[in-house]
Amino acid sequence: MKHSVILDVDTGIDDAMAIMFAVRHPDIDVKAITCLSGNVSVDKVVANTLAVLDLLGAPDIPVAAGARRPLIEPARDASWVHGETGLGDLRLPAGSRVPEQVHAVELLRRELLAADEPVTIVALAPLTNLALLLRVYPEVADRVGRIVFMGGSASVGNASAVAEFNIWHDPEAAAIVLSSGIPLTMYGLDVFNVVEVAAERVAELAASERAVDAALGSLLGFQLVDPADGTVFSHPLIGDAGAVCALVAPELFRFERVPVQVDISQGIGRGQTIVDRRSYGGEDAVYAPGQEPWPLVDVALGVDTGAVLELFFDVVTGVRV
Description:
Inosine/uridine_hydrolase_dom; glycosidase; alpha/beta; purine nucleosidase activity; Inosine-uridine Nucleoside N-ribohydrolase, Chain A; Nucleoside hydrolase
């Protein structure tokens, strides 16, 4: 099955790996890549995206810059996770192309209207660009077949105790997207955090003479410094790339279609995705009947880690693990 896809990214380490996978997968047609601030500033995101596309020898995929900050709050990056440039220790030549001279929202609209069939948007960043699109051009919602987003959690958070970074960065945008009526797939921390690459494989890639393999090894090998206590550690996850794997190989994941809501309050739960996995109602139904139903979302809760890694490396490097 061929997938027409627009990637919405804040290209840091794992977004770069997701771009590698999407561009090299034979059944994915990347129509455009839209960028926004998240892991790093939008200017760095655009530069990283163009550089990665050049590394891949990719076709002339249009790239555009979008939101520089969330809808309400100031921009807050994750450079402690992705490094100052966003690509860890990897240094790539500047891209040979310039981005489209339109806002990402305009590029999204253009590509959606030009497509012969509904397009899947794979959102690997805060959802600000998509929220703006749906508010400015609500008529294009019917042109979106599905949104697969990396974000949220049914359990633990990372930006806070309960909130995942992409949702925490712009909860209001996430709430707009969840209430859009567009079919949604949530690839959250429940699966994100377990698709980890063995250290031996990372070292092997980093030592490769093949440019893409070596770049992949550098990205996976970046060491993090815990901002709480200064501990240095490695966590070689394919991260956002797993969300693209879930699009083309959903059979490798366990999904539940359940109600999901985003906490947009200013309390300690801000940005949490509240995933209601109950099989029957509770006191909320007794004492607060008639509430609006929550959006139903296909939430990834389990994964065949070995099979996903095999798929990822088979596509990106041409070598099975």
